[in-house]
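BUG-352 | component: ligand-complex export | severity: low

The export step for zinc ion jobs runs without errors, but we want the raw record kept on the ticket for reference. Input record follows.
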Amino acid sequence: MTLTNDVKYPHSEAAEFGQPQEVAAGVYWVRMPLEITGLNHINLWLLQDGPGWTIVDTGMNTDRIHDLWEGVFADFLGGLPVTRVICTHFHPDHMGQAGWLTRRWDCDLWMTHREWLQGRVAELDQHDKMPGWQVDFFRQLGLSDTALAEIQNTSYTQFRDSVTPIPPQVHSVREGQMIRIGDHDWQGIIGRGHSPEHLCLYNAETHVMISGDQILPRITPHIGLHASEPEANPLQFYLDTLANFNHLPEDTLVLPAHGLPFYGLHPRLAFLRQHHDERLALLEDFCAEPTRVLSTLKVMFRRELNPFEAILAMGESLSHLHYLMGQGRIVRKTSDDGVWLYQASSRRADAA
Ligand SMILES: [Zn+2]
């Protein structure tokens, strides 16, 4: 069956970086630059909030974004202050300027407790290069000493370089919580798998949802397994929590962090499920024989990857392998030299 991606875009393109554009009543889209592989922008949101403004997501810690925000404040806020910063999740393109913004405006940070904690913990990492336990983790995935030396030196960038100091206090948001922003209630909907406790905000009156990275129109969110939790099953979390969006109406306008605002939430949810089902089946077939994680990249990604991309790609492969393990469709054993090998259960049964 062919994947269809039946989404519709009310705006054919974004405004210039740092030029707010109204996309729903009292909701302004602010696009900011981003310089990571495959992504050149992030969408942030500015919401009218009575006698002030609420910012949702903040951009990476760069001078350019700092200056663009200052331009927005000078030209656009009508003399009103920013009174609250909400972050969907802790990734630096979303939370990077939260520290600066909350200090600049003396206002509170709102986000889920786990995302805030994850950011605070990540900020404590102070290694010049990849620590030994992470190197050991990548060795289990099948990387050679040469490859390990390369990723240690070229692609270990510190979280704390990408963020302004994270606020020491948070106003935590729970699943289902109603947040009053200006004239509207926005309900918190939690998604997991891309990050620990990702917050989406849904306005039931206007049928508008800020989806962060949880649901994107064109790319699929990265679902990665990380060295800090090597036995995790994040794809299970991701697919399970996609159901949290099933009840939303067909005409929901989705405001994603990357790409363009879109209609077609339900076709997109179906696409995401089918996409992962197909990748899982592909991987299960590929692991007829005991297979290293590194070897799966050629079937999962089918192109040359730089070291940074390869790290993300191995995390993505692992999240699929662990989902299959959780379903009993694949088993893992460890080779004599300590490398994890994955093999489809059905093939083992056939061979026996
Ligand atoms: Zn993210």
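Assignee comment: Attached the raw record above. The first helix runs from residue 63 to 76.
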